[in-house]
Amino acid sequence: MTTSEHPAPEDLSASLDGEAPAVAAHVEGCARCRADLARLRAVSAAVAQPVAPPPQSVVDRAVARALEATGEVGDGDQASRSGGRSGPASRSGGRSGPASRSGGRSGPAPVPLRRRSRAFVVGVASGSVAAVLLAVLAAFAVVGRGGDQTAVDTALAPGRESAVQDRAAAGAAASPPGTVTAGGDLGEVGDPAALAGRLGGRIPGTAGASTALAAPPGGEAEDAARPSTAGTPAPCEPQARLARQGLGPLVYSGNGTRQGRPVVVLGFGPGQGPSGPVSGGPAGSEPGAVSLLVLAQDGCELVYATSVS
Amino acid sequence: VEAARAGDRDALDILLRRHFDRLYALCRRVTGNDADGQDACQEALIAIVRGLGGFDGRSAFATWAYRVATNACLDELRRRRRRPEPVAPEEPASLSPGTTGPAGPAAGPAGPDAADSVATRVDLDVALATLAPEFRAAVVLRDLCGLSYDDIADVVGVPAGTVRSRISRGRAALAPLLAGDGNPGTAGRRPRDRT
Predict the structure, then answer these.
(1) What's phi and psi for B105, nearest 5 deg?
(2) Which side of chain A, N or C, has fewer Cβ within a 10 Å radius?
(3) CB distance from B145 to chain A under 8 Å?
């Protein structure tokens, strides 16, 4: 290029980025190219305007959800999900190699904020329908047995004979009726394995539990069996059921802290899958085990899940 | 990065927070709105966590993270099936518009003031939305993120010459819109890579 030839638009643009130094001499003496360059510079400056960061709560949630994925990485399919996400961002070709993005979609992933909100609405609506159906079935059972004490009725506190009817009106994603062990304050619950070890035997149905109702352990938390509040979900229970499919009835409720953050600890009995009891716990949980979910008290984000049998 | 790769959860937390703002800025500009930007950034963070074990250190972590985030943005855009109306001419002959304005010939070299002015004329998001996502990503990676052409080529997986072309044509398409000379969706075609 000579100083009398106008540079190609690509070269002019690249000169703005210091990627075409040879253009500079021409631009210096060419009014048209200086004007063109000024327009490009204005575009560049407009695009470079700082982006307002989102609220800190959004950052916290996004990081927390990403950290949840560290648990899923250990599920055994890390390579199939992560490898595809780190390739170049080309949209053409390479779909089956490291550059493939679709390959990263095979496994379950924490759901982005708005999609999770939609899922929550659907979940709550489904839970409402399920609660009504359950109440109707329970009412039939009571009538059919002539009002005898039933397994369902054992959940009812004195004076709550009308709880079955109450349940019919319940709209939230609550547990089926049963006995919930109130675990109280568990203190620091940062280690999933330690938590499972501490609660084994304190939750009905787990090894070492002497009766259907867990005996007070005399430890740092005073366990006490209490009837579930029919139709009313425990704190964060709906979110727990959204986070893990197939959870059975709530059997344990406690609280604690994890890295200084208040959390709730919920235990769920085995759920009922198409082919029998299933655990709603992490992959590899023993079917029939009690699933323990630890959720942040503020926002009910799932911190981690483990199981105890 | 090494500690995070080794499974140190606290290190990973710090790493994600340290890079969050710049990744979010990329996602926000490429997707065009806060909600999509947050979703894409969320996906990017998850992908970073899952793919960290495969990060080989051949590129800077920031460049690799930009690559993951760009993928997440393109995925997000494809999911939403946003296909804005084309506007830019295939071969922009000259950038001189024949009109004057804050960023026009009479204004001289444009500075931040000129940028503020043009940005208020036409919403930057609307203008960027007229570009094909690949062009948009290239321009944003250069002008907002400050990546070199070689790094952008690494991020998007195309030759540096293609990056150079996409940036040039993307800027050329944006120029009349941001200067108030164009109307998104009225004429022309979006720039595409030459085949």
Answers:
(1) -60, -35
(2) N
(3) no
B60: helix, strand or coil: coil
Question: Which H or E element spans position A227?
Answer: strand A224-227
Handedness of CA A250, A251, A252, A258 (dihedral sign): negative
pLDDT along chain B (195 residues), means of 10: 84 92 94 90 92 84 92 87 48 38 33 48 80 94 94 92 95 86 50 62
Chain A residue with Cα closest to B53: A82
Partners of B58 in beta bridges: none
For the beta carbon of residue A188, count every other beta carbon within 10 angstroms.
14
pLDDT at residue A127 in the model: 57
- Distance (Å, whole) CA B24 – CA A66: 14
pTM, two decimal places:
0.49
Q: Which residues of chain A does B111 touch, with a Cβ-Cβ cutoff of 8 Å?
A: 45
The dihedral built from the CA positions of residue A45, A50, A51 and A52, taken in this order, carries a sign that is negative
Q: What is A50-110 written as a DSSP string?
A: PPPPPPHHHHHHHHHHHHHHHHHHTTTTHHHHHGGGSS---SSS-SSSTT-SGGGGSS--P
B174 touches chain A (CB under 8 A): yes
Phi-psi region of A123 (alpha: psi -120 to 50; beta: other; left: phi over 0): alpha
Phi and psi torsions of A276, nearest 5°: 130, -170
Residue A264 CB contacts under 8 Å (≥ 6 apart), including other chains: A234, A235, A236, A253, A254, A255, A294, A295, A297, A300
In terms of Cβ atoms closer than 10 Å to its own Cβ (0-12, 13-18, 19+), residue B186 is exposed
* Alpha-carbon span A78 to A104, nearest angstrom: 9
Please give the torsion angle defined by the CA atoms of residues A215, A218, A222 and A225, in that order, rounded to the nearest 10 degrees: 10
Comparing A164 with B162, which gets the higher pLDDT? Answer: B162
What's the CA gap between B95 and B35, in Å, rounded?
34
Q: Is the pLDDT of residue A249 over 50?
A: yes
